[in-house]
Amino acid sequence: MAKLARLDDIVSLCKRRGFIYQSSEIYGGLASCYDYGPLGAELKRNVRNAWWKHVVQMREDVVGLDCSILMHPMVWKASGHADKFADLVTVCKKCGTRSRVDHLQDSKPSNAPVPAEPQQSQDLSGKVCPACGAVGQFGQPMAFKLMFETQMGANVDDTMTLFLRPETAQGIFANFRNVLDSTRIKVPFGIAQIGKSFRNEVTTKAFIFRTREFEQAELEFFCKPGTDESWFEHWKQQRFNWYLEYGIKKENLRFREHEKDELAHYAKACVDVEYKFPFGSGDWQELEGIANRTDYDLRQHQRGIRTMNDWYENKGDLTKIALRQESEDYLKGPLAYFDEETRERYVPYVIEPSAGIDRSTLAFLVDAYDEEQVNNEQRNLLRFHPALAPVKAGVFPLVKKDGMPEIAMNIYNDLKKYFTVFYDEKAAVGRRYRRQDEAGTPYCITVDGQSREDNTVTVRERDSMEQTRVHIDQVKTYLREKLDL
Ligand code: GAP
Questions:
Q1: Are residues 183 and 57 in the same domain?
Q2: 169 Cβ below 6 A of ligand 1
């Protein structure tokens, strides 16, 4: 049976083997910011690619987008983020720590399941300060804005306050018309994007689980109103199966429907895919949200476009401007859709599966982690799905003599054109295997004495540790088949 990973095991493995480091560590570190090291950068790139493959590459009805992080301030005014994207926080009167109201726990132990975020209760009399343990010592809850501000422009009179995007989704809505006009795609269809988002989170959490700079993988799937509920079901299943396909164990994955009072301001329905992370007592936590955003965003951006027309006349602070009412003929607006076949006009509904690349990476690390006893020694390994494994194969000469390094180097030089491979001739071969096990490398190819006689090598499989002799000419094909790449 696989060993259950503790978060400490994962953090220490990540540092030791170069998956993830604390950001700016040489200066004491920057809280809640992390850097991906050599193995981590490969792993994260593979997670992105696996998402893109399933959400974009393998679908005829989804196209990709890569838009800028900085966007016009009206984007955030229209989307509602400028006014509503805030957490309700409270300050502990004893120690001064600021906490999210929906994250506070009750002082009395309860058998009720711990609610996932967010929850709206404002009665704080029985709540405990997570920093000092004081009970019910909280100030008046207040809104804390989550978007980071920055300034654009070099001159005082043309400097503009902008926000770092808190979600990638709005870049997709802002480009909806561009994509329609520059491709032949028709509703129902989706636009997908992977990129950095930024939120000045009140509380960060558990390594890369909740950070202030993170990467999202989001799909906005546009469909005809009335068909939205079946597309919602479709994407729920697609996304759940994606995690299973890439190796997450079924018992660690579940859906959680949002209650009506925890829905975001734009959503008609939302379900989270949750993973059983090893924090606290084994918490079920959101991995990805799948929301029915209705026609809210496109209609809001039509209001934003009307408001801009006013602004050109009066100017002023764009972030403080009031959004104009929706036009009565909004179905003729620039972001409405005209279906040529049915001659119908409507504003599409949107189904949004929104995943976190860092959060998924953490889940894949946790789920792959294992320890086992082999010949009275502990073997640490990461049982990554081959597509996610940072290195696909290690290539070793058994010893550093008798022509073995030359043969191994030739194999390495050939394979590196197709896969991420690693050449290693240092230390005993057993130690080299263990190092690759700990990096999650699915195969190791070893050149030995027999290789010079019959042109074969051993290929060792990470999980079973079984070795198979393969002809050197066949190694590439063998790996391709086994890795399914
Ligand atoms: N566009 C919808 C949206 O942004 P969200 O539930 O706020 O929805 C979607 O975020 C996903 O992005 C989350 O399920 C999580 O995986 C990831 N995410 C959100 N905030 C994060 C943070 N502070 N750190 C790491 N990942 C985060």
A1: yes
A2: yes
* β-sheet bridge partners, residue 77: none
Task: Look at residues 96, 117, 145 and tell me which one is the last residue of a structural domain.
Answer: 145
276 lines ligand 1 (CB under 6 A): no
Find the 406 Cα to ligand 1 centroid distance in Å: 48
Pairing label, strands 127-128, 189-198: unpaired
Tell me, yes or no, whether 152 lies in a domain: no
Please give the backbone phi and psi of residue 392, each rounded to the nearest 5 degrees, phi first.
Answer: -85, -35
The enclosing domain of 467 has a CATH number of 3.40.50.800
Categorize the per-residue pLDDT at 287 as very low, low, confident or very high, splitting at 50, 70 and 90. very high
Indicate which residue's Cα is closest to atom 18 of ligand 1: 356
What would the pLDDT profile of 465-476 be if each residue is shown by its tens digit? 999 999 999 999
Please report where in the chains the tokens 């829905």 appear, as a residue. Answer: 263
Residue 356 CA to ligand 1 centre (angstroms): 6
156 domain-assigned? no
Ligand 1: distance of its center to the CA of 360 in Å?
11
Q: How many residues can be counted in the chain?
A: 485
Going from the Cα of 287 to the center of ligand 1, the distance in angstroms, rounded, reads 8
What is the C-alpha separation between 58 and 52, in angstroms, rounded? 9
* Ligand 1 atom, smallest distance to 210 CA: 24
- Residues paired with residue 214 on neighbouring β-strands, in sequence order: 197
Across the strands, what pairs with 135?
128
CB of 33 closer than 8 Å to CB of 24: yes
Global confidence as pTM: 0.91
What are the tens digits of pLDDT across the range 89-113?
Answer: 899 999 988 888 888 888 865 454 4
Find the domain containing 430 and state its range.
391-483
Distance of CA 238 to the CA centre of its chain: 16
